[in-house]
Amino acid sequence: MCMLILTCLLTLSLVTTIQPKRTLYSKKYGVDLIRYTHAANTVVYSSNKIDDTIRYLSLHDNKYIRYFPGHSKRVVALSMSPVDDTFISGSLDKTIRLWDLRSPNCQGLMHLQGKPVCSFDPEGLIFAAGVNSEMVKLYDLRSFDKGPFATFKMQYDRTCEWTGLKFSNDGKLILISTNGSFIRLIDAFKGVVMHTFGGYANSKAVTLEASFTPDSQFIMIGSEDGKIHVWNGESGIKVAVLDGKHTGPITCLQFNPKFMTFASACSNMAFWLPTIDD
């Protein structure tokens, strides 16, 4: 399995960039972070105009289903539960809020000491909060009001900030993205830094998204010069650099959760497929 996935990574081919099927505008509120929900053709998204309310939108008819007010500064993290209608948001107001799509009222509120990033684990029972670019706190969703059940202190780096946090699909690893020229892979149970991946371009401190492959074995991130860098998560060795012909920094890179395909995006989007023969 490991060799098959590695072969796929080394032989991924770029699919011709396609035109969007439909465009929906949010000119009044703007759009920043956007996440699909479990309901068909619906999303939640944060805004960058007017206020910091999170909006629940039906893509079918371009109508709002519900608003989630509460944050007083820009939302910098948004994560949908993988199992139900719960989602969490982190803001520059130094809070993390827990929501349910069925209610406009905040279901839980955590006050922190710095800027947060946050994400659910793959089973939807735990969420992790990265705080002030130096600590990872793990919370049990059923008793989050009692505080974190584990806290991992990282070495603080003044040259950059944490911009994202993701669990691997097997729940064993946490990937920390930064706006610097490195990302970190840590053990989700012990908090030990397993690898620090660098060697990609990001001189302008752009928020670049990193992702696990669906089998949790490889880590990928785009770069300022439009290339995609790939590492083996176990050995820490870089195994590939993919050229997607992007014209700017790759700020979004996400895998299909079940298949060996992914999308990368700067101002345009590209789709990738494996090219192995049966």
UniProtKB/TrEMBL annotation:
Keyword field: Nucleus, Repeat, Signal, Transcription, Transcription regulation, Transcription termination, WD repeat
GO cellular component term of the entry, any: Set1C/COMPASS complex
Gene Ontology molecular function terms on file: chromatin binding
WD repeats: 68-103, 200-241
UniProt keyword Repeat, yes or no: yes
SUPFAM superfamilies from the UniProt entry: WD40 repeat-like
Biological process terms in GO annotation: DNA-templated transcription termination; lncRNA catabolic process; negative regulation of DNA-templated transcription, elongation; negative regulation of lncRNA transcription; nuclear RNA surveillance
Principal location: nucleus
InterPro entries: Swd2/WDR82, WD40/YVTN_repeat-like_dom_sf, WD40_repeat_dom_sf, WD40_rpt
Compartments where located: Nucleus
Pfam families: WD40
First and last residue of the signal peptide: 1-17
Family: Belongs to the WD repeat SWD2 family.
PANTHER family in alphabetical order: WD REPEAT-CONTAINING PROTEIN 82 (PTHR19861:SF0), WD40 REPEAT PROTEIN SWD2 (PTHR19861)
Name of this chain's protein: WD repeat-containing protein 82
